[in-house]
Specification:
With about 240 residues, the chain is mostly beta strands. The chain contains no helices and 22 strands. The protein folds into two domains: about 15-135, Jelly Rolls (Sandwich), CATH 2.60.120.10; about 140-235, Jelly Rolls.
Length: about 240
């Protein structure tokens, strides 16, 4: 029997630092909820809003796979590996922190905010060499389809991470129905609604709601509003 956990957008943790407003699906920093520590090996799902010209100063990470998905605006990245880049809406960035990195993230623009998702996944290998990658997503390929944007395999579509995890993005017409088959039976899938409304396995979801499902091989997805956007994250439930 399929197990489900529903995380409504209104129940997320909230941090307002003035320059940064962040919503936390799982416990993070000053937000602690013992019932929301993670979904399997998906540890962090932060929905961040950074004011014009502001950002995160240089700070460290280690032994974590970090995925950033800009939703609006431009995010400037610098790290201890020597990478300097700007990540824009329609791109995806990944870092394997491994043995340790430092990096900073700033809103590139002084006239508008940047909105992005910051996602952490526990790795299946510790103390790997730090790694960075960034690609542009084929947004046309997301139309009424689930486009793979993260996988464990460097040869596959999208960016890759040190974990048996697959992420997909899709944008759907109203009433379009599809399904997703899990790659590994011991994995679960976490659906996060970016825009619009969906019904997933009989559960109604609205913008920024999250639904975790496990002990299942396939889930059904129906968009119930026009232009609805969805992020699906298949991750191991145990490491």
């Amino acid at each position: 029997m399929t197990n489900k956990v529903l995380h409504k957008a209104s129940g997320r943790g909230h941090a307002d630092h003035g320059w940064l407003v962040s919503r936390h699906t799982f416990s993070f920093a000053g937000y602690y909820n013992p019932e929301r520590m993670s979904f399997g090996l998906l540890r962090v799902l932060n929905d961040d809003f950074v004011e014009a010209g502001e950002g995160f100063g240089t700070h460290p990470h280690d032994n974590m796979e970090i995925i950033s998905i800009p939703l609006e605006g431009d995010l400037e990245h610098r790290d201890s590996m020597g990478n300097t880049s700007v990540i824009t809406s329609g791109e995806i960035q990944v870092m394997s922190a491994g043995t340790g990195i430092t990096h900073s993230e700033y809103n590139k623009n002084n006239d508008r905010p940047v909105k992005f998702l910051q996602i952490w996944v526990f790795p299946n290998k510790r103390n790997v060499s730090p790694r960075y990658d960034q690609i542009r997503i084929d947004e046309a390929a997301m139309r009424n389809s689930l486009l793979q944007v993260v996988s464990p395999n460097p040869e596959d579509e999208g960016v890759w991470i040190h974990q048996d995890a697959w992420f997909h993005l899709g944008k759907f017409d109203k009433d379009f129905t599809t399904s997703y088959s899990l790659k590994k039976k011991e994995n679960g899938v976490y659906a996060f609604v970016l825009d619009g409304d969906f019904t997933i396995d009989g559960t109604a979801l609205n913008p920024r709601d999250g639904l975790g499902l496990w002990n299942t091989g396939e889930i059904s997805i129906t968009a119930t509003s026009e232009g609805a956007r969805l992020l699906l994250m298949e991750v191991p439930m145990a490491g």
